[in-house]
């Protein structure tokens, strides 16, 4: 059984078509959504978190249909969600807030609930600030609180909207570690603008652009699409899509190379850029 199965999902807000016939499957491991601002990533994640239903198309989560109220409750019991704008109650302490979410998640027995709250606080490295008020935390620490509440009850499906946004490099690495651990044996679907995070974490990626899934496959498969299209030269090539002078003084160009230049291995970012520049190309593997 595929944990997440989205087929032909279309969603409009007024005249804006946020998603246009998107297909996406996700299984245990980490699946990443990559795309520019306004591409439709949050809309797709909200569907996978049972917050939104598509206007057209179908969504199946953990073998159930989130459009049916009885199924939806069952899915939510096995789902953890970190929304883009997690609405924290800033007057709560970290412990109180996570405990409050645990109560909403129907963990009624106080002792086992508190054990679970302490477990997720430890998992996300928040023990030392457990008694601090959320308003006194840095943005990165607040992101951890968001992850902690999503991990409550050891969910089978974890939906994380830009989990690494606003984190410093050290915290980002910590987060990567926590997310990759979370992806062992469970299904994690996340969005990110950080191609490095996507490359490091995701076994599978979907590039979303203007409401469409423009590429679905592995990071290596996406990167491979830019093979032969990145080169170095002593000057900026006029035909390059993008070019910059690197620290060692040569120009790194991306686009259609002229004859005789030195080709270099592409990165996922190069392939992403090339895909964005060719609006008609769609690749699904
Ligand atoms: N509730 C809403 N009401 C009206 N328009 C919306 C709503 N939610 C999303 N949209 C629009 O749908 C489109 C897709 O938005 P979405 O938030 O899914 O993009 P995104 O890829 O998550 O962007 P970002 O990277 O900036 O978070 C945008 O044009 C956005 O303005």
Automatic annotation (TrEMBL):
UniProt-recorded Gene Ontology molecular function terms: ATP binding; ATP hydrolysis activity
CDD domains, alphabetized: ABC_drug_resistance_like
InterPro entries, sorted: AAA+_ATPase, ABC_transporter-like_ATP-bd, ABC_transporter-like_CS, P-loop_NTPase
Domain of life: Bacteria
Statement: the UniProt record of this protein carries the keyword Nucleotide-binding: yes
Keyword vocabulary terms for this entry: ATP-binding, Nucleotide-binding, Transport
Keyword Isomerase: no
Domain ABC transporter: 4-235
UniProt family annotation: Belongs to the ABC transporter superfamily.
Matching PANTHER family: ABC TRANSPORTER, ATP-BINDING PROTEIN
Name used for this protein in its record: ABC transporter ATP-binding protein
Organism name: Actinomadura syzygii
């Amino acid at each position: 059984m595929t944990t997440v199965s989205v087929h032909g999902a279309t969603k409009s807000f007024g005249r804006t078509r946020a998603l246009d016939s998107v297909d996406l499957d996700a299984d245990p491991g980490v699946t990443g959504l990559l795309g520019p601002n306004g591409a439709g990533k949050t809309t797709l994640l909200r569907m996978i978190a049972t917050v939104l239903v598509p206007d057209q198309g179908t969504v199946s989560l953990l073998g159930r249909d989130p459009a049916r109220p009885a199924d939806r409750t069952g899915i939510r019991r096995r789902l953890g969600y970190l929304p883009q704008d997690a609405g924290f109650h800033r007057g709560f302490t970290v412990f109180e807030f996570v405990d409050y979410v645990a109560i909403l998640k129907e963990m009624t027995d106080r002792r086992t609930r508190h054990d679970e709250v302490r477990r997720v606080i430890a998992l996300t490295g928040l023990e030392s600030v457990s008694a601090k008020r959320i308003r006194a935390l840095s943005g990165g620490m607040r992101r951890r609180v968001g992850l902690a509440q999503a991990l409550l009850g050891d969910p089978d499906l974890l939906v994380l909207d830009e989990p690494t946004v606003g984190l410093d490099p050290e915290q980002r690495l910590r987060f990567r570690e926590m997310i990759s651990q979370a992806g062992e044996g469970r299904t994690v679907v996340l969005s990110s603008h950080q191609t490095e995070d996507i490359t490091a974490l995701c076994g599978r990626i979907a590039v979303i652009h203007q409401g469409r899934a423009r590429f679905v496959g592995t990071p290596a498969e996406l990167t491979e699409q830019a093979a032969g299209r990145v080169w170095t030269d002593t000057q900026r090539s006029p035909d390059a899509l993008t070019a910059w002078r690197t620290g060692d003084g040569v120009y790194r160009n991306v686009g259609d190379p002229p004859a005789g230049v030195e080709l270099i291995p592409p990165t996922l970012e190069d392939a992403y850029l090339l895909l964005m520049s060719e609006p008609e190309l769609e690749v699904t593997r």
